[in-house]
Structures are given as structure tokens and as C-alpha cells.
Design goal:
seven-stranded mixed sheet; alpha/beta; 7 strands; about 25% strand; globular; 6 helices
């Protein structure tokens, strides 16, 4: 899908993957962050998490290549939507080594299969040497007809594990009906 396809979905409110708020467990994870962090959120959609990280005192730069998503974010989070860059995450001019944490929520499962190989390396390049990749990852069987494109064990081994070590993993029991045949997992990964 291209940016216009995503914009059309946002403008027509055809967004079954949108929880309508941040995941219920996010506040607890944010509370564990010991100091002010520089946060990157790829594929931020309506930007609920931008607001939560901002309220906790963190600096956020988000990105989405859908103008429709950013328009919706302006309605949801108001001027905080100015933290969103409208660009392709894989090509945007973001400073390498700048971020402390990258937050994942329905971005990996929306990436076309041919772009997945760039996911881990791109995030790792943006994070500082002790950076974390944290969020909710969708696991399941391969589905070439997505999105969503759930992560498989092989995806994880090929696209994330070469760049990150898993620190924390638990099932998210507050997932969305659209993802019911798959499994959503809260994970925290440390940059290698």
C-alpha cells in the first residue's frame, strides 16, 4: 500500500487496527523509564502514544508517510501533531544515533514484505549505543495478502535479532479483534 491508500483509509475511518488510545500497558512501561528520553515512533498513525510520552516529559519525533493519518493526529492530539514528520521512515533524514528508544505499534506488521529486511538495521542506526526498541509486536502465520503481515519466528531471526537482544517478552491480553487470529506481544529489545 502507498501513502494515498493509507490516507484514504484514515479519512474514511477504515482503521480497524486503531485501538482508539494507547495500549493499556504503555503507561506502566513509560513509568519504568528512569530519565527523559528521546523517542522515535515510526508509523505513528493518530499519535496517541506521542501524547503519553510527552506527558511523561519525553521528547518525541514521530513519522508517518500518510497525510491522512497526520490530519487525524491533529484532531486527536492537537499541536503535539507537530512532532510528526510526513515522510517514509526508511528514507527520512533522521539523525543516526540520536534516539534512546524506538516505540513499535502496528508498524512492522504494516510494512510490505520486501521492506522488512531494512526494519532492524534502520531502527538500530537511529538509536544510540544503549538504545531500546520497545512496544507491541504482532506475531502469527505468514500472510502475503496483508496488511497486517504478522511477524514470524523467521522474521524475528532475520530482521530483529541481528541488531537487538530480547530483554522482556509477555503476551498483551488487551489486543484488537482484527488481530485475534494472531498474538500481540509486549517486547523490549536492547541494541547490540
Amino acid at each position: 500500500m502507498n501513502p494515498q491508500d493509507w490516507s484514504d483509509r484514515y479519512r474514511s475511518h477504515n482503521t480497524k487496527w486503531d485501538l482508539g488510545h494507547s495500549p493499556l500497558g504503555l503507561e506502566a512501561y513509560i513509568a519504568k523509564l528512569s530519565e527523559r528520553k528521546k523517542i522515535q515512533i515510526p508509523g505513528c498513525g493518530r499519535g496517541y502514544e506521542i501524547m503519553d510520552f510527552h506527558k511523561a516529559g519525553h521528547d518525541v519525533i514521530a513519522i508517518d508517510f500518510s497525510e491522512g493519518a497526520i490530519e487525524e493526529a491533529r484532531h486527536v492530539i492537537g499541536p503535539l501533531a507537530d512532532a510528526i514528520i510526513c515522510d517514509d521512515f526508511f528514507e527520512a533524514p533522521l539523525e543516526e544515533g540520536h534516539f534512546d528508544l524506538c516505540y513499535e505499534r502496528t508498524f512492522f506488521c504494516a510494512i510490505p514484505l520486501e521492506k522488512r529486511r531494512d526494519y532492524g538495521s534502520r531502527i538500530a542506526s537511529l538509536l544510540n549505543k544503549s538504545g531500546l526498541l520497545m512496544g507491541v509486536f504482532l506475531y502469527g502465520k505468514p500472510d502475503p495478502d496483508g496488511p497486517p503481515f504478522p511477524m514470524t519466528k523467521e522474521d524475528r531471526e532475520r530482521f530483529i535479532e541481528p541488531f537487538f537482544s530480547l530483554l522482556f517478552d509477555e503476551r498483551d491480553h488487551n489486543g484488537l479483534p482484527v488481530f485475534n487470529e494472531n498474538e500481540e506481544r509486549w517486547q523490549i529489545w536492547q541494541k547490540r
